[in-house]
Design goal:
single chain, 227 residues, mainly alpha, 2 domains, 7 helices
């Protein structure tokens, strides 16, 4: 009887060990699936960014990002391969999530550089002409376009529609500024000096005086003593 009882106890212990392992594996699988869900979500964002913005970035950056993605895919394959024997892949997937997040930040930095380069000249010209009489009627529209474009500095487009909105706003701003007549290099320099309070009588060349006499330009300027 004691031998039989001992045998049954041993069998029950084996079953308990087996059930404990199953429960542990179940918990490991659940934790792993939660990490997989997080990785999938951020991977979709990475794919959207790269697919959309690759053509807007320098070739060397695009090649660098492509190589980084290949490395990340290799890590995914390894994790998948090891899943059968090691269900708990939370640590590996967490590291993978962080790497994808860092790569997204790199892409966003490069996009910001691109967007600022594209808008640099229009923004500079807008600053020069914003106080001219012929521009006042478009003041709200021009500043609104500038605000829209600046928004894209911190929030890169994730869809073709959003990217088209950036292009459209930039084209609209450029065209409207291009309609301001007579802005040659000399006049732009004069306006820049005026904005920084560095313009003097010596800057009033015949060309600039003639431009000031057009329309209501003269009303936009005042002469004061330098203090």
């Amino acid at each position: 009887m004691i031998v039989t009882l001992s045998r049954e106890v041993c069998q029950n212990l084996d079953k308990i060990d087996e059930m404990t392992k199953i429960l542990q594996d179940t918990g490991a699988v659940k934790a792993t699936l939660e990490e997989v869900s997080k990785v999938l979500e951020i991977a979709y964002r990475l794919d959207a960014l790269l697919s959309l913005l690759r053509q807007r970035l320098p070739d060397e950056n695009s090649q660098h990002f492509a190589a980084m993605v290949d490395g990340l895919l290799q890590e995914v394959r390894i994790s998948y391969k090891n899943f059968e024997t090691e269900p708990r892949q939370t640590r590996q997937l967490s590291l993978l999530y962080n790497k994808i997040q860092n790569l997204i930040k790199e892409i966003e930095v490069q996009w910001r550089i691109y967007a600022q380069q594209q808008t640099e000249q229009p923004f500079e010209l807008l600053k020069l002409v914003l106080h001219l009489p012929e521009v006042q009627s478009q003041y709200a529209v021009l500043t609104s376009l500038q605000t829209q474009l600046k928004h894209f500095f911190d929030y890169p487009p994730l869809t073709r529609t959003q990217l088209a909105d950036f292009d459209r706003a930039l084209q609209d701003l450029t065209q409207r500024l291009g309609n301001v007549e007579g802005l040659d290099t000399e006049i732009k320099m004069f306006l820049q000096k005026t904005l920084s309070h560095k313009a003097t009588i010596a800057d009033l060349t015949d060309n600039i005086l003639q431009w000031c006499q057009q329309g209501n330009h003269a009303d936009a300027f005042a002469i004061r003593f330098a203090l």
